Amino acid sequence: EDPLYRNELYDKYIKSLETEMEPLTTKEKNFIVSKQTVNVAVLKSDAPYYTKDSSGNPQGIIPDFYKKLAELTGFSFVYKEYGSEEDAVTAVLNGESDVLAMYSDGQISAYNKGLRITSAYAKVDAVLVAHTGDTVNDISTIAAKKRSISAMQTVFLGETGKNWVAYNSAADCFNALKNNEVDAIICGQPSANWLINQNNVSAYSLTTVSSGSIAISGALAYNNDVLCSILSKAVNVASLSFDEIATKNTLPDSN
Question: Once rounded to an integer, what is the mean pLDDT over residues 66-70?
Answer without folding.
Answer: 97
